[in-house]
Amino acid sequence: MPEIPDKKPVSLADVLALHEHEQPVMQRTLTGLSLAGRDLSGIRFIDCDLAGCDFSGATLTDAQIVSCTLKNAKFNGCNLNNTQIVSCDLSGAQILETHVERLQIVAGDASNCDFGGSTFDQVSLVQSSLANADFSQCGFYRSVVLASDIKGASFAQAALSNFMMTDADLRPVDLSGTYIDVALFADADLSGLNLAGQSWQHCTFHKATFKGTKLDGADLRASVFAECDFEGASLREVTADTTCFTNSRLDGVDLSGGQFSMANFAGAGLTGARFNNSKMFSAVFQDADCRAVLLEQCELNQAEFSHADLSGASLSSSSFQNAKFHAAKTEQTVMLGTSGRWIGTDNERMVAELYQTEKVALDGDVPARKGTR
Predict the structure, then answer these.
(1) 252, 273 Cβ separation under 8 angstroms
(2) Sign (positive or negative) of CA dihedral 124, 128, 134, 136
(3) Fewest CB atoms within 10 A around its CB: which of 93, 169, 285, 291?
């Protein structure tokens, strides 16, 4: 194979001349060159050494930077609208206190970068190393972090809104004081983190892990925790109105003193969980495993317990108004000091629910074949 030629040094005048003639800057060395404040709109850097270059205050709108070395480069105050940085080494670079729109960093190394105080709007960070990157006090809006290494990164005091992150192992990430509103986390692991008092509103988690996570006093309103594992977690005094915990594991978890109006625990595992002194207007526990659950001194007006297993549970001193216990299991359930009224089992409805012709054929019936009605 022919040897790749060494990169040739290039001067500032040469760079500006190539840009003026709409020619790419290819296989050149610009180490330490200052391009601060320059209008470099649409420039193309390909396989160049840009280590230590200063782009502060420059305009890089619609620029393409491909397979370049950008170690310790500075982009502070730079206009990076619609800029693409692909397969580049950005380690140790700075983008401080900068408003960034529609930037793409793809398949690069942005480890140890300092982005502190910047705002990112419609920015994509894809398959990149963000290890030990500093995003503290940053704002992310309509932005994504996809399949990237975030080990040791800091999002302390950051704001994430309309945000998406995949392969989200957040255990080695600093989330202290992070504000999150409208976000999707795929394959998330937040085990052991202290998220007490933080805002996680309108978030979506599917099959996420919260083992031993502290969420006391957190704001979880309108979020979705579907099939999540909260083993050993603590959710005391959370605000979780209209929040969904369907089919999640919450056995033995302390959720006392919480706000759960219209929350959904359908199909959840809640054995031994504690909800004492919680407000649960129209909360749904349909088909939930509530054995030995503590729901003492709770407001359970219009709560839905149809088909829930409340065996050995305690609802002492709780108030009801039209709470539904249709087909619920209430063996040894304690109801001492309760007030209000509840709706018991509708036997005709229960028989109808059990009668499924595809499973059981009565005399004179023809069982429906699979896939037919």
Answers:
(1) yes
(2) positive
(3) 169
CA angle 265, 270, 272 (to 5 degrees): 150
CA distance 108 to 65: 11
User: In this structure, are residues 19 and 35 in contact, taking their beta carbons and an 8 Å threshold?
Assistant: no
Q: Which of 251, 262, 198 is nearest to 229 (CA)?
A: 251
Q: How far is CA 35 from CA 41, 90, 173, 290, in A?
A: 12, 17, 34, 65
Indicate the helix (H) or strand (E) that contains 342. Answer: strand 339-343
Euclidean distance between CA atoms 16 and 370, whole angstroms: 72
For 136-193, what is each residue's pLDDT tens digit? 999 999 999 999 999 999 999 999 999 999 988 999 999 999 999 999 999 899 999 9
Confidence at 357, pLDDT banded by 50, 70, 90: low
Residues 6+ apart with CB under 8 A from 219: 198, 199, 200, 201, 238, 239
